[in-house]
Amino acid sequence: MKEKEAGREIYFQKALHSHYYIVHCVTPAFYAFALIGDPTTSMLGTDATPEQVAARNRNWDLDRPVLVRYGEWLLLFLQGDMGVPQLSYEPWPPRFGPKLPITAVLTLMALKHGSRRLIPLGIARDAIQIMSVPPFLLEF
Asked: Which tens digit of pLDDT belongs to each residue from 119-135?
């Protein structure tokens, strides 16, 4: 029973952390990009006709209010849909899927080599703290 409660507590903490990330990082970025300017004009160039800009805005759903677009994006994101990149129009799994194994290998190698150095340093620091060494000597 306690394991189930601990699992719920961890899940709740992770949900709070993701909420913090979405509120403080993603939301300001979303609105900042909306305030910067029209992405279709910068992509199509200044000689694009108004019809081309309107068609691109309709294609990317940029003709709707920012709040509506953000709400839809947030709902899809919370369901696990990260969308399609606007430049390549191909979903992320086929594009990044082949790169995941090498990324995993590099991550594991970094953890292995980092832990070789950092775990002994952490043990040494704890041992020094137990021996009541002044705190300024522990900063290494």
From this structure: 888 888 777 777 766 66
Phi and psi based region of residue 64 (left: phi greater than 0; alpha: psi -120 to 50; beta: remaining)? beta
**At 135, phi and psi to the nearest 5?**
-55, -35
Tokens of 115: 């832990």
CA distances from 72 to 29, 46, 80, 107, 136 (A): 16, 30, 13, 33, 51
Quickly count: other Cβ atoms within 10 Å of residue 56's Cβ.
19
How far, in Å, CA of 3 to CA of 24, rounded?
32
Using CA atoms, how far apart are residues 128 and 137, in angstroms rounded to an integer?
9
Tens-digit pLDDT profile for residues 99-111: 888 888 998 998 8
Question: What whole-number distance in Å separates Cα of residue 140 and Cα of residue 137?
Answer: 8
**120 backbone φψ class: left, alpha, beta (φ>0; ψ -120 to 50):** alpha
> In angstroms, what is the C-alpha Rg of the chain?
24
What is this structure's pTM?
A: 0.49
